[in-house]
Amino acid sequence: MAKKQKYYHFLGCIIPHRYPSIESAARLVFKDLGMELLDMEGASCCPAPGVFGSFDRVTWAAIAARNLTIAEVGGHDITTGCNGCFASMFDADHEMKHDPELKAAVNEALAEVGREYKGTIEVTHHVDALHRIGLDKIREKVTRPLTGVRMAIHPGCHWMRPKHIKKKDESERPHILRDICETTGAEYVPYKDELICCGAGGAVRTADVKTALDFTKQKFDSLESVGGADIIVTPCPFCELQLDLGQVEIQKHFETEYHYDILHVVELLALAFGHEPEEFGLTTHLQYQMRKNEPNWERLGIEVQKAEDAVPTE
Asked: Who wins on pLDDT, 172 or 155?
């Protein structure tokens, strides 16, 4: 019998606080595929790659390295469902492996809490882990083909960029995420602005939400120009937040309505694997609640428990 692949599961901040359905879906999907997700007890923020690293490189790397040491002690690689968390830990690991002075400074800081970064594990994204298990094996688990669903994809920025470091995919013509999503039977819808930022990254959403929404609206308008889609799939919870909540905010700031259900890639797979939306919390999504509990994917015959008294929160 083949040895079960185990990963330490790094949740980050947004998944447990805003989209816990991503964690629930990941646990279901990875289990279905014969992989085990281990809890990372004591893990902290990744920390946010663009913000911390811009102000203090050693502090940023030390916080990231402390998370890495949890996995090093346990002896298993890390997987995360967040582009930002992946970028922060992957980049810190990469830089410390290529910069002895940075590694020494980080370990000097970690010594104060009895830890040492050794560089013995790999940081992966859920997309990486899924792709390694194989498209054929993923396809075998599909019991509810999403035939007839028009699906757009938003890869986000940090999973595959910078390309000379990440070497994950063809960053200008990516296909790995699309390949995984297409195993569900959904119809891929290409659109011109698929690869631009969602608008939230780099603290833009925090500093100027309207500017962030300009990016989001541009993506939606680009998608509308090719006939729209039923769902948009992303591998990042922060992008999911921007595309989900952003539809409400765009209506407020631009008086323009869009109607897209936003799914993380593991949520998409959970549906296709036959899991019910309420089983992993998909019904908590803002767009589901805002549109009177009539999401685009419900026309597939997926029955869900109605939540008439659900109050969406921004």
From this structure: 155
Distance separating the N- and C-terminal Cα atoms of the chain: 48
Chain segment 21-59, per-residue pLDDT in tens: 999 999 999 999 999 999 999 999 999 877 777 789 999
Q: Which residues contact 272 (CB under 8 A, 6 or more apart)?
A: 141, 142, 143, 144, 145, 146, 183, 184, 185
Query: What is the phi/psi pair of residue 12, to 5°?
Result: 75, -155
Last residue of a domain, one of 126, 154, 178: 126
233 with 268: CB under 8 angstroms?
Answer: yes
156 and 24 fall within a common domain: no
Output phi, psi for 197, to 5 deg: -60, 150
- Residue-level pLDDT at 293: 56
Is the pTM here over 0.70, yes or no?
A: yes
Query: Domain check: are 167 and 290 in the same one?
Result: yes
For residues 43 and 67, the answer to whether their CB atoms sit within 8 Å is yes
Own/partner long-range contacts of 96-100 (Cβ < 8 Å, ≥24 apart): 96/61, 96/65
Mean pLDDT for the chain overall: 89
pLDDT in tens, 178-197: 999 999 999 999 999 999 99
pLDDT class of 287 with cuts at 50, 70, 90 = confident
| Least confident window among 29-43, 58-72, 156-170 | 156-170
Extended beta strands in the chain, E state: 5-10, 35-39, 78-80, 123-125, 150-153, 187-188, 231-234, 261-264
Number of H helices, E strands in the chain: 16, 8
Q: Which residue has the tokens 């902290």?
A: 44
The structure tokens listed for 72 are 């090093």
Q: Work out whether the CA dihedral 231, 38, 159, 141 comes out positive or negative.
A: negative
- Cα–Cα distance between 256 and 233 in angstroms, integer? 21
* Domain with 92 in it: 5-126
